[in-house]
User: What shape does this take?
Amino acid sequence: MKNQWTEFLYGRVTVKVSGKGIERFLNVLTRNGLHIWHVKRHGTETITFKMRLRDAKNIRHYARKSECSISFLRRSGMPFLIKRLFKNSGFLLGAGMFLLILLFLSNVIWGIEINGAKPETEYQIRKELDKMGVKVGKVQFLVDNVEGIQRRLTNNIGELTWVGVELKGTTFHLQVVEKNEPKKPELLSPQNLIAKKKAIIVNMFVETGQAVVEKNDHVEAGQLLVAGEFGPEGKTELVAAKGKVWGETWYKSHVVLPIVTNFKVYNGKEKQKYSILLGKLEVPVWGFGKPEFKKYETEKDVRKIHFLKWDLPISYINKTVREREEFTRTYTNKEAEQMALELAEKEIKSHLNEDAIIKDEKILQKVIKNGKVILDIHFKIIENIAVGQPISKETQE
Amino acid sequence: MAKKWGQRVRNWMAEKMDLPQDVMMDLPRITMIGQIHVYVENHRGLLAFTDKELRLLLKQGQLLIKGQSFVIKTILPEEILLEGKIDQVIYINDNPGGTK
Assistant: This one.
């Protein structure tokens, strides 16, 4: 017995043979290697049998030599099924559409979940996401990628310390850590306030403790400003001295700024290229040809395409080719001086507390040589010079 | 006479060497499964087929199978599988008294 499945795959036909000498005809067929089966007699002069589709083409040749007439009754098997499938192509189309729609919907954002945020912050995050285009119903690979969203959120929302963005299936999960202003620890241990550096006292606000110095006093670094120990001799009281002592301090800053600087900048011209990555084969979809830029950099954004919960070996690639330009900035001497000054200010401020103020600045020396501006600047700054120093038992006694 | 000698040699060999008779002597091998299947190997062609009767040509003589609602499940040049309700399997000899 031959396997019926192979016959099904290649297709089979039911043949009706009528006439005289049917048996002889069957012998001829079998001896010529035509495989026939399921031979049945209907009446005296008719039989039906099944045979392969590819043998059916040859049967006429043998039938002509015999006295039988043949006709084909039924066709079954894969070739005919496929034919019928194409005839009723609506089904095929429907199945295809179903898969396509499922594929499309698998790549759409269906939810944004925010955890760990206060309602106000959550609202802000949602607003920011909206601005970015991250909304329910958008296609995933047309919005910014996860790192980009994370960066923008942390940059644009001040309340956030950190936000972790994760794409799980069709949902964005945002794990938020908010900035909690830490409460200043209560200083319970007795302390004095001493000067952090040499200064002239401009103003004082003493909350607790006894001021030892006065306005316009000159103090050295380490000098006692506010004592945490006061009271009559023998009955001294120990407290944690608290307060702010504003002193004028001096800083010297040395700045070197080249007059001519070369920059590499993007000039805003860019070209988008889209392609689809199938396994390792990259098929460009839009944006052909080499960019006509002389110098450029390429940024590549690869997104996996999902199907339900699986990642397909298909990716969507968006390449951004940006033109790069070399840009030379030349300052006049005056501009250079101005810029150097600003630079120095910025540098000084980065060392100081936020509440420090630059009161005055004086250029001590200005040299322009070798295409560089060299400035020595003297800053007068008003800042809080008080720092706590604990009073230990030993010093007290 | 020569043919008869050949036959005898074959017969002898089959007996002495323990070979199956059907291979050595070109005899049909008929396998029946109950009443429903007959499998005939080594036939020489179909002579007549109706739903009540099947006549096969053998090397020597004919084989007649009688029964009801016959369907040939498979037919190959030397094999045939018949399905139906088999009543009788009859050998018909052309020349009675010839070789066995």
About this structure: The beta strands of chain B are 29-33, 37-41, 46-49, 53-57, 62-76, 79-92.
